[in-house]
Write a structure and sequence with these properties.
- The protein is mostly beta strands.
- The chain has a single domain, classed as Jelly Rolls (Sandwich), CATH 2.60.120.
- 0% of the residues lie in helices and 45% in strands.
- It has strands spanning 22-28, 33-39, 44-48, 53-60, 63-68, 75-80, 85-88, 94-98, 102-109.
- The strands form 2 sheets. Strands 1-2-9-4-7 form a 5-stranded antiparallel beta sheet, with no helix packed on it. Strands 3-8-5-6 form a 4-stranded antiparallel beta sheet, with no helix packed on it.
- Strand 5 and strand 6 (75-80) form a beta hairpin.
């Protein structure tokens, strides 16, 4: 077994969203994907939904997540800080903003193939 194909160093992974507001690196397996996102204060991401379950862990800083109830569309906001986890079920619309410089570790299952240019599968 070639262990070099199974390992990576986070700092050696490419920044997939180069720009002044964030650094995003991803490591993908067959059933799960990790995403390390470093965001500057004020960086935001538009509301979106995906078929993947997402686990969010705040490593540093504070992040506001705006989560829409899939049935009513009503938005609720939650602020997460260091060591806070949040589970986002599949197909739940969410967006957010970095309230401070922050670092977030996301896990997606299954991997977010939309990041690799594939269309989002139809909601079930």
């Amino acid at each position: 077994m070639d262990l070099t194909a199974l390992t990576a160093r986070l700092d050696d992974l490419p920044d997939l969203e180069p720009g002044p507001q964030s650094v995003v690196r991803r490591f993908t397996g067959d059933s799960v994907m990790f995403q390390d996102a470093q965001m500057k204060k004020g960086a935001s991401f538009e509301p979106h939904a995906h078929h993947n379950e997402q686990l969010v862990l705040i490593l540093e800083g504070r992040l506001r997540l705006d989560i829409a109830d899939p049935k009513s569309g009503k938005i609720q906001s939650v602020t997460l800080g260091p060591s806070d986890f949040m589970r986002l079920p599949p197909n739940v619309p969410h967006g957010g903003e970095a309230l401070t410089d922050c670092r977030v570790l996301d896990a997606f299952s299954p991997p977010r193939t939309t990041f690799m240019g594939e269309p989002e599968p139809e909601a079930k």
